[in-house]
Amino acid sequence: MIDEREAKLPKWAQERLTKERVLRDRAEASVKVLFTYTKTNTYWEESNDKRHPLPNNASIRFQLGPDMFDYIEVRIDEKEKALYIYGPGRINIRPEASNAVWISLARLGQK
Question: Is the pTM of this model over 0.85?
Answer without folding.
Answer: no
